[in-house]
């Protein structure tokens, strides 16, 4: 191959690599996206630069509208207890993956997470013995990321997570792990900006 052809080939590869890299990065333009950075649904209202924020605060983690199992169901008590433990696990997940520190209520240049649980399903302990996702614990939430100073909603998200392996005798650790994973997902979502 001649030197000139070799240089042209290298330039072509470099151009192709640049286009592929820019195409692989999902857009941060306003709009609604599905499976965006592994989050089920994201609606970007106002693009932002996450590096301009010092902190992330979890302002609300609403579980009041979650439908509980019937009071006579053997999972009712487990779900009530899990609801009390989910916010700390969610905050821990955000803290693990966020590129800035996380706090409950922070002044200054802060991104605020407001989340609401929409589904808390304990699944079936007996079905989890068989594995392959059977009997999974499921948690679904919707939420928004807000600029604390202006109060403007920057984006909205919806995410569901499932966990099925481990904790054969207890629901608590599965709920906590699933809530932690949801927090990690939201932190990765913020990190994408």
Describe the structure in your own words.
The chain has 193 residues and is of the alpha/beta class. The chain has a single domain, classed as Rossmann fold (3-Layer(aba) Sandwich), CATH 3.40.50. A seven-stranded mixed beta sheet has the order 1-2-7-6-5-3-4, with helices on one face. Strand 6 and strand 7 form a beta hairpin. Helix 2 runs parallel beside helix 4. The radius of gyration is 21 Å and the shape is globular.
Portion of residues within helices: 25-40%
The tally of strands reads: 7
Radius of gyration: 21 Å
The biggest sheet amounts to: 7 strands, mixed
Helices and strands, in N-to-C order?
HEEEHEEHEEH
Mean pLDDT: 82
- Cα distance spanning the termini: 43 Å
Q: Report the total helices.
A: 4
Oligomeric state, counting identical vs distinct chains: single chain
CATH class: Alpha Beta
Strand order of the largest sheet: 1-2-7-6-5-3-4
Low-confidence stretches: 5-23
CATH architecture heading: 3-Layer(aba) Sandwich
**Which structural class matches the secondary elements?**
alpha/beta
The number of domains is: 1
CATH topology: Rossmann fold
Which geometry do the CA atoms define? globular
What is the percentage of strand-forming residues? 25-35%
